[in-house]
Amino acid sequence: MEAFVAKFFQIDPDVMLSHNLCGSVFEVIMSRIQLLKVPHWSRIGRLKKQSFPMRRADQTGYSGSNWLPRISTCGRLLVDTYVSSKELVRETNYDLSNLAQKQLKTERHEFDDDMLPQFYLKSERIL
Q1: Greater pLDDT, 50 or 19
Q2: What own/partner pairs with CB < 8 Å and gap ≥ 24 does 23-28 have?
Q3: What whole-number distance in Å separates Cα of residue 55 and Cα of residue 21?
Q4: Which domains does the chain have, with CATH numbers?
Q5: Using CB atoms within 10 A of its CB, is residue 20 exposed (0-12), middle (13-18) or buried (19+)?
Q6: With a threshold of 0.70, does the pTM exceed it?
Q7: Mean pLDDT of 78-88
Q8: Is the pLDDT of residue 61 over 60?
């Protein structure tokens, strides 16, 4: 996790984009950072913070599931396609595979994370 935070700080992205970023993805990242007591955790955002954000709404000013990403990533734009799809389209299931099928009329292929490095061997494989 320290290497992840260091690399993230080095890359210094303006935008973070993911499906369900403000839900499970960011929650897992930050819980691991807190559990492992990773120093300089605030490099996930652009403001240097000393204490890890607490979940209480009266301290943070936020409530609900989106409080942690907003507090932790100050200075970066968060794009959560799950949240956006819930706002923009009417579906019963907002899973990425279902959205690809219903909205884009294309099939999204699931794959094992171990296969990911193989996709970057040739540019044709990425598509």
Answers
A1: 19
A2: 23/65, 23/80, 23/82, 26/68, 26/69, 26/72, 27/65, 27/68
A3: 17
A4: 2-126 (3.30.420.10)
A5: middle
A6: no
A7: 89
A8: no
Question: What values do phi and psi take at 77, rounded to 5?
Answer: -85, 125
Question: Token digits for 113?
Answer: 């994370």
- Cα-trace Rg, the chain: 17
**Structure-token pair, residue 114:** 């171990």
| Residue 29 to residue 2: CA distance in whole angstroms | 11
Encoded amino acid at 40, one letter: H
Q: Structure tokens of 4? A: 């992840």
Cα–Cα distance measured from residue 61 to residue 7, given in angstroms and rounded to the nearest whole number: 29
Phi, psi (degrees; rounded to nearest 5) at 80: -110, 105
Question: For residue 85, what are its two tokens?
Answer: 């799809």
Please give the full DSSP string across 48-115, using - where no structure is assigned: --SSPPPS-HHHHS--STTHHHHHHTTTSEEEEHHHHHHHH---S---HHHHHHHHH--PPPP--GGG
